């Protein structure tokens, strides 16, 4: 009985020992061949995910940067002088507000705002002062016979001509220093207050040597107008109207180096130019088609849109004003 | 001798059995608590590394590394959830671009963009991805019988109703946690893509407890519409039409606390509401006039404008397309 039990126990023990030993060996082989440490994997996965998130954030910013007002000036970057003619109307403050908020994302931007007015208005003065931008505030009243009258179609006379010329005059006077000096580094751009600008377009134009060009969306009855680039050169223009014009481009579609503007003190906009020739009147003394510098990925990307804001209807306002119940004129709109 | 051996073997066997049993129990607990699947982890890690490499490539190409760092999130500030319904049209990209550039100035803003479309479009997806903003991209097609048809006057049927409701549904699902939790701190604002927003309005609305209100410029045939404040309370409304409506305010003129939105899961916009009653259909279940919180210096400042962008004319485009000379459809406008 004792011997049988001894034998039985011994057999069971040996079998059990061997089976568990096999298990141990198998486990060790597993560990050696493919070591699986959950915590380590999880930590690698977490690290990778954090890195991914960081990169995604960075990448998102590639088109636009999130910055608090008043960017620090970067001495190495050429200044972009943005010339904006503006005139009093119901949507003026709205337009200038959203424009200024776009410009706030652009380092080294100097905004030259020229009012079509006999004096600087408090609305524009105040807006510029609070904008956080570097700016110059000018005014130049358009001569009455050159001005669009109420009811005139907007193409009848070009708007903003004398204001743009006044800004050019100011620039030439302000930057008149020893030629080749640092104060001549810069780019000049004409940005009307109703258009839409991606902040990217400013980085495109910053490297302008003579005249940079790019497509403009929603202009001239077209989805876009654009220089056509072949082999890195502008060879013609995609436009819906008179492609034979010297420079069949919208005002929003080019920038000029400050040096070129200063070196050609007579170059300006001709208010008497036939319709559609205003841009050409300024550019044809400065550059040839062959010299144009195509930007925005060889003119394949639309980064500026010729948007127009509807004139708001004021029928109810007028009706209420007739009853003495109009909107408080002390509230600036 | 046999007895001693029997005892010894028995003891060793029992001890060995117990120790290995403990080991087995431990192994089983490990398996139950944290199932470690090496192959799954390795595949996740490989995927993440590939995604990282892809993003790094993209980042290099975009040159984004040169841009300044993103404004850090401020945990102390309530998030502003801006809900923007949008639909495909010629000016869509321009409008969303300038809107996104305004929002980029606002810390802790979460943009919820809802397309009126059967699917998310590449144009909006891409714009959001590159925007630098925190966002959620949704879509909800408006039922055909509720949709404005080509040529309908814009007041005939309200636009964006089902898209705003979809955003509310998403918010309620996403923020559904224990009541009073941190994830319920926030403000909800409905910002259409054609309006103009001063960045200041977002700081005004950030302190919303229930419903904040302020003037809206250029709306309803008026210079502005506004709550009228006396003794710090809204007592009536300055509006050109039916001041007797429960809340005669434009969509751009109020914000609602996230808590209030979550506490009233049935509150939404009623697309069948009579013209001019859409805002009221949402607000009347949430708040009384007496509870409204006037912002923007007791509703004396206009910081939002109901601007509208003209529909661009495409006559030349159509004429050129007929000749096979239309604008390259591969260029996104």
Put the structure in a nutshell:
Chains A, B: Pathway: Protein modification; protein glycosylation. The structure is a homodimer of 333-residue chains. Chain A is an alpha/beta fold.
Characterize the structure shown.
The structure is a homodimer of 333-residue chains. Chain A is an alpha/beta fold. The first copy, chain A, has a domain at 79-144 and 158-305: Spore Coat Polysaccharide Biosynthesis Protein SpsA, Chain A (Alpha-Beta Complex). The first copy, chain A, has helices spanning 2-33, 38-60, 92-103, 122-130, 161-174, 200-205, 258-263, 278-283, 296-299, 315-322; strands spanning 79-86, 109-115, 134-139, 186-190, 196-197, 211-213, 216-217, 224-230, 233-238, 254-257, 293-294, 304-305. Chain A is elongated, with a radius of gyration of 34 Å. The termini of chain A are far apart. Residues 30-36 and 60-69 of chain A have low confidence and may be disordered. Chains A, B: The record marks 225 as: Interaction with galactose moiety of substrate glycoprotein. Chains A, B: Its cofactor is Mn(2+). Chains A, B: It is found in: Endomembrane system; Golgi apparatus membrane. Chains A, B: Belongs to the glycosyltransferase 43 family.
Q: Which secondary structure elements does this structure contain, and how are they paired or packed?
A:
2 copies of one chain form a homodimer.
Chain A: H1 2-33, H2 38-60, E1 79-86, H3 92-103, E2 109-115, H4 122-130, E3 134-139, H5 161-174, E4 186-190, E5 196-197, H6 200-205, E6 211-213, E7 216-217, E8 224-230, E9 233-238, E10 254-257, H7 258-263, H8 278-283, E11 293-294, H9 296-299, E12 304-305, H10 315-322
Parallel strand pairs in A: 1-2, 1-4, 2-3, 6-11
Antiparallel strand pairs in A: 4-10, 5-12, 6-10, 7-8, 8-9
Helix pairs in contact in A: 3-4
């Amino acid at each position: 009985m004792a011997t049988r039990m001894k034998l039985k126990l011994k057999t069971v023990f040996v079998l059990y020992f061997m089976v568990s030993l096999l298990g141990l060996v198998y486990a060790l082989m597993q560990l050696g061949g493919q070591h699986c440490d959950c915590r380590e994997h999880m930590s690698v996965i977490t690290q990778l995910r954090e890195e991914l998130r960081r990169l995604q954030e960075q990448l998102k910013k590639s088109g636009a940067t999130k910055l608090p007002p008043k960017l620090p000036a970067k001495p190495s970057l050429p200044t972009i002088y943005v010339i904006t003619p503006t005139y009093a109307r119901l949507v003026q403050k709205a337009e200038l507000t959203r424009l200024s908020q776009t410009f706030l994302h652009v380092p080294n931007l100097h905004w030259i705002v020229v009012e079509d007015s006999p004096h600087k208005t408090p609305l524009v003065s105040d807006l510029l002062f609070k904008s956080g931008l570097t700016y110059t505030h000018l005014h130049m009243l358009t001569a009455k016979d050159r001005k669009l009258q109420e009811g005139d179609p907007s193409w009848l006379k070009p708007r903003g001509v004398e204001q743009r010329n006044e800004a050019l005059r100011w620039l030439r006077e302000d930057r008149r220093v020893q030629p080749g000096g640092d104060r001549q580094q810069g780019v000049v751009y004409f940005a009307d207050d109703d258009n839409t600008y991606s902040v990217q377009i400013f980085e495109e134009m910053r490297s302008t040597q003579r005249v940079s060009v790019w497509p403009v969306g929603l202009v001239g009855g077209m989805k876009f107008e654009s220089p056509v680039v072949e082999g890195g050169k502008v060879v013609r223009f995609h436009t819906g109207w008179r492609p034979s014009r010297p420079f069949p481009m919208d005002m929003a579609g080019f920038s000029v180096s400050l040096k070129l503007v200063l070196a050609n003190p007579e170059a300006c906009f001709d208010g008497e130019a036939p319709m559609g020739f205003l841009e050409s009147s300024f550019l044809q003394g400065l550059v040839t088609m062959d010299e144009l510098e195509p930007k925005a990925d060889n003119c394949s990307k639309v980064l500026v849109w010729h948007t127009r804001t509807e004139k708001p209807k004021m029928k109810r306002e007028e009706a209420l004003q007739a009853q003495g119940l109009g909107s408080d004129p002390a509230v600036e709109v």
